[in-house]
């Protein structure tokens, strides 16, 4: 596989399934060696690796719960030890634990904040030393339309996703002088396991509010991520929205 990312190493968190998996495959297609992170689904992570290798790409699999600071830092260390460096960091891993504010437990609040938001502080801090030394880095944070507009039953998730946008802007300002760009992608509803878990009734009502009349695909999000990585020299601190017109 020859491409714009030949010789570069990309860490994609939560790359066993859904959007992260599509990002890993897309970056590998453009020449990056990919570190596929997952937390519990080893079989899915290995199948992503096999798909990349079958197409002639390079990939390794590293298990880590990125919501745990030690494991997140160990993920970046493993990538640097096994692949030599980290040029590209896609902070994609995320979960949702939906409940109204009145009913939400502390555990549901904390799990989403740790997994979706705190994780990007841990991985970014761990990766930026090497990026600064090489004066190059591309960081993309997987936020959400929900971080831009809020949503019933998603106080934890919307706060985490909005926090990712604010983190992105601060990191972009701090790191621009070291050749590191930091951007956020804000997808609308995308057909993955996360959305498959919703009832048909909710899916129909969601689609009624999406002007293009459908959910997006993981591949469409991966193309946006790849754009920010390969064309991203002047793009930094941006929120790239792709939501079928649901929010503008
Ligand atoms: P998904 O299909 O549920 O996949 C989630 C991925 O994250 C899996 O690879 C999972 O690994 C991994 N993961 C979960 N918790 C983790 C942890 N603590 N440490 C490491 N990896 C972990 O989700 P998705 O729909 O692709 O969503 C990916 C990202 O896009 C999330 O941040 C999500 O919030 C965001 N997003 C999704 C949508 C949407 O409509 N789907 C819209 C906007 C934004 P295992 O396989 O090991 O469980």
Describe the fold and architecture:
By secondary structure, the protein is of the alpha/beta class. The chain contains nine helices and seven strands. It has helices at residues 18-29, 42-54, 69-83, 106-134, 145-149, 155-175, 193-196, 200-208, 218-230, and strands spanning 9-12, 33-38, 59-63, 88-91, 137-142, 180-187, 239-242. It has a seven-stranded parallel beta sheet with strand order 3-2-1-4-5-6-7, with helices on both faces. Strand 4, helix 4 (106-134) and strand 5 form a beta-alpha-beta unit. The longest helix has 29 residues, at 106-134. The mean pLDDT is 97. Bound molecules: NADP nicotinamide-adenine-dinucleotide phosphate. Residues 13-20, 37-41, 44, 65-67, 92-95, 115-116, 142, 144, 187, 189-190, 192-195 line the site of NADP nicotinamide-adenine-dinucleotide phosphate (NAP).
H/I helix tally: 9
What would the principal axes of the Cα set say about the shape? Answer: globular
- Sheet having the most strands: 7 strands, parallel
Order of strands, widest sheet: 3-2-1-4-5-6-7
Whole-angstrom Rg: 17 Å
Identify low-pLDDT runs: none
